[in-house]
């Protein structure tokens, strides 16, 4: 697979990854390497990575606890302190090996430590390969509120080695698949139709689909890096999806949802809202709902939970001037941004999902 240029980053795939990284280390005068992992990637991914790392530079491993619950400013403080204690300087390089929590948080730590050090993302989950590690968004949650603190900053390199997916649980694979399904809905039937029968997909097919998903996101981000227009389309399903994810994260009576599991619900709700407001096909809405429920099952959301979930919409990052802005579909591959939606229609969408 050819490498992909994305703004100030280069994205490399599989065998090319380590050659590109080692050449990067030779070319730049880094003082030291710091590798950020969680307990899972420390065990399953770091040994594979270190076997391919060819450098005489000293390196240190910094481990944080896994999970969205640890994607906080407090965790950042711990990593910043570790960097200081281990004598990191402005010529240090940070390598983030993990899923979206690691690449989001690690990128934020790197681009704020001493006003910015270089960093490389090595995504190890499907979600981080096709979404979190690409596009320059870094940051952390504010309590249960998703990605409220952060900056847009490009890594030097993104290294996508799909062999890391071999150790990934199925629920994590499904979580990443949700973002790929989203890419299909917002870009068109050519890509969308490839997901209609997952039983026919081989691992080689998956590698190709990952590559195409990265291209889709790269093309959007390259045209609109700071989310003034086109990049908002990547938030399809995320307005309500993030609110649902935050609600389940903060409610001790609910089982925490993975990002993709919440986004799938958000996409079904957004399709229904689209069918009410933009003329999106009701037949397509019903088909998408059934397809997604076949793949993911149904999340139980009681009527009494609609209001507290909807209260969280006010924190969505696309909002402006007091308006809650949705991304909707007019057709598969045709989006409409900055749409306002009455509460009554959102409640209808929840009812439709729970039918």
Per-chain topology:
Blueprint: E1 4-6, E2 9-13, H1 15-27, E3 33-38, H2 39-44, H3 46-52, E4 59-64, H4 73-85, E5 93-98, H5 100-112, E6 118-123, H6 126-132, E7 140-142, E8 145-149, E9 157-160, H7 170-187, H8 189-192, H9 203-223, H10 238-250, H11 259-277, H12 282-296, H13 303-311, E10 326-331, E11 334-339, H14 343-354
Parallel strand pairs: 2-9, 3-4, 3-5, 5-6, 6-9
Antiparallel strand pairs: 1-2, 7-8, 10-11
Helix pairs in contact: 4-5, 5-6, 6-7, 6-9, 7-11, 10-11, 10-13, 11-12, 11-14
Give me the secondary-structure category: alpha/beta
Largest sheet: 7 strands, mixed
CATH architecture of the largest domain: Up-down Bundle
- How are strands sequenced across the largest beta sheet? 1-2-9-6-5-3-4
Question: Remind me, CATH topology of the largest domain?
Answer: Dehydroquinate synthase-like, alpha domain
Query: What is the CA-based Rg, rounded?
Result: 20 Å
* Chain-averaged pLDDT: 95
Domain count: the total is 2
What do we call the CATH homologous superfamily of the largest domain?
Answer: Dehydroquinate synthase-like - alpha domain
Walk me through what this model shows.
The protein is globular. The termini are far apart. The protein is 48% helix and 16% strand. The chain has helices at 15-27, 39-44, 46-52, 73-85, 100-112, 126-132, 170-187, 189-192, 203-223, 238-250, 259-277, 282-296, 303-311, 343-354, and strands at 4-6, 9-13, 33-38, 59-64, 93-98, 118-123, 140-142, 145-149, 157-160, 326-331, 334-339. The protein has two domains: 4-168, Rossmann fold (3-Layer(aba) Sandwich), CATH 3.40.50.1970; 173-354, Dehydroquinate synthase-like - alpha domain (Dehydroquinate synthase-like, alpha domain, Up-down Bundle). Helix 10 (238-250) packs across helix 13 (303-311). The protein has 355 residues and is α/β, with parallel strands linked by helices. The strands form three sheets. It has a seven-stranded mixed β-sheet. Strands 7-8 form a two-stranded antiparallel ribbon. A two-stranded antiparallel sheet has the order 10-11. The mean pLDDT is 95. The relative contact order is 0.11.
């Amino acid at each position: 697979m050819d490498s992909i240029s994305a703004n100030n980053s280069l994205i490399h795939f599989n065998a090319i990854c380590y050659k590109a990284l080692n050449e990067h280390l030779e070319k730049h005068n880094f003082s030291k390497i710091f590798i950020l992992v969680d307990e899972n990637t420390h065990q399953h991914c770091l040994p594979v990575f270190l076997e391919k790392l060819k450098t005489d530079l000293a390196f240190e491993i910094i481990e944080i606890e896994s999970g969205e619950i640890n994607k906080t400013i407090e965790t950042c403080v711990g990593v910043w302190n570790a960097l200081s204690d281990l004598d990191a300087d402005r010529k240090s390089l940070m390598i983030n090996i993990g899923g979206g929590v690691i690449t989001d948080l690690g990128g934020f730590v790197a681009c704020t430590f001493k006003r910015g050090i270089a960093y490389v993302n090595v995504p190890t989950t499907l979600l981080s390969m096709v979404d979190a590690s690409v596009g320059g968004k870094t940051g952390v949650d504010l309590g249960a509120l998703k990605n409220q603190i952060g900056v847009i900053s490009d890594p030097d390199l993104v290294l996508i080695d799909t062999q890391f997916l071999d150790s990934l649980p199925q629920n994590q694979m499904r979580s990443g698949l949700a973002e790929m399904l989203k890419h299909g809905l917002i870009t068109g039937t050519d890509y969308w139709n490839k997901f209609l029968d997952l039983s026919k997909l081989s691992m080689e097919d998956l590698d190709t689909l990952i590559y195409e998903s990265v291209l889709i996101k790269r093309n959007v981000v390259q045209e609109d890096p700071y989310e003034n227009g086109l990049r908002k389309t990547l938030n399809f399903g995320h307005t309500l999806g993030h609110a649902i994810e935050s609600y389940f994260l903060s409610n001790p009576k609910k089982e925490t949802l993975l990002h993709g599991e919440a986004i799938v619900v958000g996409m079904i709700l957004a399709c229904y809202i689209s069918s009410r407001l933009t003329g999106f096909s009701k037949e397509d809405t019903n088909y998408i709902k059934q397809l997604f429920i076949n793949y993911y099952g149904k999340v139980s959301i009681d009527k009494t939970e609609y209001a507290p979930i909807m209260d969280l919409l006010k924190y969505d990052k696309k909002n402006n001037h007091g308006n809650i802005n949705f991304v909707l579909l007019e057709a598969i591959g045709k989006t409409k941004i900055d749409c306002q939606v009455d509460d009554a229609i959102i409640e209808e969408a929840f009812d439709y999902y729970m039918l």
